[in-house]
TrEMBL record:
UniProt entry keywords in alphabetical sequence: Amino-acid biosynthesis, Aminotransferase, Branched-chain amino acid biosynthesis, Pyridoxal phosphate, Transferase
Organism: Paracoccus suum
PANTHER family on file: AMINO-ACID AMINOTRANSFERASE, AMINODEOXYCHORISMATE LYASE
Catalytic class of the enzyme: transferase
GO cellular component, one term: cytosol
E.C. no: 2.6.1.42
One Gene Ontology term of the molecular function aspect: L-valine-2-oxoglutarate transaminase activity
Presence of keyword Plastid: no
Catalytic activity annotation: L-leucine + 2-oxoglutarate = 4-methyl-2-oxopentanoate + L-glutamate; L-isoleucine + 2-oxoglutarate = (S)-3-methyl-2-oxopentanoate + L-glutamate; L-valine + 2-oxoglutarate = 3-methyl-2-oxobutanoate + L-glutamate
Gene Ontology biological process: amino acid biosynthetic process; branched-chain amino acid biosynthetic process
Name of this chain's protein: Probable branched-chain-amino-acid aminotransferase
Length: 284
């Protein structure tokens, strides 16, 4: 693979970052994952807007303009011949010298990394036919989940626990209600109404979430933004999750209880179809 590091395109084996980098020492870094369909970027502007916000919230300098980011994304797609897959990018606060809780001087150059991966069955994902099973786990993450940091150890542990229990993902619960999946926003459908938690610092403001809610409104589907419990989700007609890498993913059981028929439901299927179709059209 050819990857991007601080202005250069390099073979992945030659891309090296300092052991003093604050991304490595302190998870002092933010990231984005943008899907690629037919060699084009899905929701690129949304991902760039969120990146800028994440950087701003942490006071990390903005290393590239949106046009420069677009050029990097396109170059990586071309150099790596990506048809379906994703572009990952990460910006860290840079080399902080000896480990220190105090940030390095504000003129420290951020470290900028980007690379691609292929995902041939991105659109025709067999998981979407089958639907995911999920377990619930406590949400013990920090309280700025609206910032897309690389501090992903707990989501990773939760995913491992889900896999160990034979499930596909975990839905995280705080104060009795569901916040998110390990790496996706979550929804239930009851009597035709789509219910999903409102935006706040408790959840990541999903770019796919924004698109799906827009498509739902355009298709005259009713949407209610509020928290829900695991019990309410288990008693719902349908459940699903959204993210840039899984699009719209039906969820067919929660803690061993089938949701609705226990099969992917019509609302999730329809939203997935619309999402793929519209994303294909709008991709750049
Ligand atoms: N919540 C969390 C915790 C995530 O990690 C992700 C995926 N990055 C999402 C939600 C979905 O966001 P998006 O639709 O922008 O991929």
């Amino acid at each position: 693979r050819t990857v991007y590091l601080n202005g250069d395109y390099l073979p992945e084996t030659e891309a090296k970052v300092s052991i003093f980098d604050r991304g490595f020492i302190m998870a002092d870094a933010v990231y984005e994952v943008t899907s690629v369909i037919d060699s084009k970027l899905v929701d690129f502007a949304g991902h760039m807007a969120r990146l800028e916000r994440s950087l701003g919230e942490l006071g990390i300098a903005k290393p590239l303009t949106t046009d420069e980011w677009l050029a990097v994304h396109r170059a990586l797609i071309e150099k790596n011949e990506i048809a379906d897959g994703a572009v990952y990018l990460q910006v860290t606060r840079g080399n902080g010298g000896d480990r220190d809780f105090v940030y390095p001087p504000s003129d420290t150059a951020p470290t900028v990394v980007a690379y691609t991966w292929q995902k041939p069955l991105l659109v025709d994902n067999p998981d979407a036919q089958r639907g995911w099973t999920v377990i619930s786990l406590p949400d013990i993450r920090w309280h700025r989940r609206d910032i897309k940091t690389v501090q992903l150890l707990y989501p990773s542990m939760a995913k491992m626990e889900a896999k160990a229990k034979g499930a596909d993902d975990a839905w995280l619960v705080e104060d009795g209600t569901v916040t998110e999946g390990t790496s996706n926003n979550v929804y239930i459908v009851k009597n035709g109404r789509i219910i999903t938690r409102e935006l706040s610092k408790d959840i990541l403001h999903g770019i796919t979430r924004a698109a799906v809610l827009r498509f739902a409104a355009e298709a005259q589907m009713e949407v209610e933004e509020r928290p829900f419990t695991i019990a309410e989700a288990q008693a719902a007609d349908e459940a699903f999750a959204t993210s840039a890498s899984s699009f719209v993913m039906p969820v067919v059981s929660i803690d061993g209880t089938p949701v609705g028929t226990g099969k992917p439901g019509p609302v999730a299927r329809r939203l997935r179809e619309i999402y793929v179709e519209e994303s294909r059209k709008a991709a750049i």
